[in-house]
Amino acid sequence: xxxxxxxxxxxxxxxxxxxxxxxxxxxxxxxxxxxxxxxxxxxxxxxxxxxxxxxxxxxxxxxxxxxxxxxxxxxxxxxxxxxxxxxxxxxxxxxxxxxxxxxxxxxxxxxxxxxxxxxxxxxxxxxxxxxxxxxxxxxxxxxxxxxxxxxxxxxxxxxxxxxxxxxxxxxxxxxxxxxxxxxxxxxxxxxxxxxxxxxxxxxxxxxxxxxxxxxxxxxxxxxxxxxxxxxxxxxxxxxxxxxxxxxxxxxxxxxxxxxxxxxxxxxxxxxxxxxxxxxxxxxxxxxxxxxxxxxxxxxxxxxxxxxxxxxxxxxxxxxxxxxxxxxxxxxxxxxxxxxxxxxxxxxxxxxxxxxxxxxxxxxxxxxxxxxxxxxxxxxxxxxxxxxxxxxxxxxxxxxxxxxxxxxxxxxxxxxxxxxxxxxxxxxxxxxxxxxxxxxxxxxxxxxxxxxxxxxxxxxxxxxxxxxxxxxxxxxxxxxxxxxxxxxxxxxxxxxxxxxxxxxxxxxxxxxxxxxxxxxxxxxxxxxxxxxxxxxxxxxxxxxxxxxxxxxxxxxxxxxxxxxxxxxxxxxxxxxxxxxxxxxxxxxxxxxxxxxxxxxxxxxxxxxxxxxxxxxxxx
Length: 618
Hints:
Blueprint: H1 2-30, E1 34-39, E2 44-47, H2 49-55, H3 76-87, E3 94-99, E4 105-117, E5 120-129, H4 131-153, E6 158-162, E7 167-170, H5 172-177, H6 197-213, E8 217-225, E9 228-240, E10 246-255, H7 257-275, E11 282-288, E12 293-296, H8 299-304, H9 308-311, H10 326-339, E13 343-351, E14 357-368, E15 374-383, H11 385-403, E16 407-411, E17 417-420, H12 422-428, H13 432-435, H14 449-461, E18 466-473, E19 479-490, E20 496-505, H15 507-524, E21 531-533, E22 540-543, H16 545-551, H17 555-558, H18 563-566, H19 572-583, E23 589-597, E24 603-611
Antiparallel strand pairs: 1-2, 1-5, 3-4, 4-5, 6-7, 6-10, 8-9, 9-10, 11-12, 11-15, 13-14, 14-15, 16-17, 16-20, 18-19, 19-20, 21-22, 23-24
């Protein structure tokens, strides 16, 4: 009887071992990651299907060979250092390149663990192919650097605010406009932290109107910061997510202070003239057919803030989905479950234990019983939140380059145009198809072109930004003045991979400046005596050359005087009574005859025409 029980126990143990071996073999052979074993000399002894597929070598050409066979020569020193660490049981996961049989290179994320079998030291290695991810990340980073360089190259303030008015993205020009020396001092704050409360409230009210109406608005805003007031013409638009929900406000502000001052000067001159103007980077998990977690690796705490004990057997995978997308993401997941299909790069937004949104890219394989029925899924998650944020930033910056009124172009290292925004088409009259692949020299209208071009190339070759005025030519042959910024675009390693140029038409500004200068010259050179004095204090503000010459006073001396010092026929009371109709605007103009007294005491007859000057008066 005892013998029968022993035999039965042995059969049960054998079946359990067989089931365990089948289970482990299923995991190993269905894994998307390469799993292999090397001996103490570094020679391959075993590899799963994914391992040979990733490396691109047949099994019989690798088994028994040292791992250096698949390592590029330039990586030998690095990999041998890692091997020494592994043998000393100190190794951490690392990234390394390998060479496939066809000569192509792949990037792997490698982790090791030692084991002893039959008294011999072996090493189990897991290799994840991250080539696609690294290429995608590099492309995203290049686009991000390009868009960030363009954003920083634009001299106008550009910003993105959330629904609560907090700045979540901005360029240096925005920070400077708010009186701050760096972007970091603005991120996460709202306008009340930087400008007077009443101005901040007006801006916030306008932001809310834009978000509620869903329509863009063109606004004129005066911003007081750091003791200075600057004027901006700001275009604000609602910022949407992919589902059409308003997330905040995009703003592009043109600093028109100089233009405003020039226009004010022109207007003032005109008025004066007329008035006298982390080992694993992934979370490994397993759920049953209903979605309940039955396993979660410790990395879950790093990614989502929950320990495995907090979710295994207690939460379904969809419980962690963000409420904003929960139902549609859950439905999409169970549609895959119903088809019993493996899947990769399933993007899903989850909620971290601290409440923050976390984007995951998920891949998994179905687990089926002997009858082909689904018993669950086993898979892994990668935290792609940073990548999603980068993609969103790139999308935002792309929107900006198409909305700004400045012309923007980029060229390759051979100075052939590779991009032109909509404003370029509008300003120059060329379509993008006509300009792409051409040299920017076709736009040049400078009479001293060679000297300026040499200066530009010398500046950008040294990694610096060139700024200056330049004459350019439109498609119709017309020439216009523009402010031009030319800058190199560099990658993470500081290597220049392209050039960018931002061009602004300044024709109207220069015309306004020239007109203001002409009006000022007319007034200054007039033979009549022209004075401006304060309507309240009566102190002189300005007097032209004719007045100073005739009276014998300098401008500094006159600023200490009032009309009463020149008009001996008037007392303070009589002069105040005379100009009161002007002050209360019951009369537009006064004309009277009196005498003026010079600095030397001599007097002469004058006919006086007196008007009140007010801001905006005709």
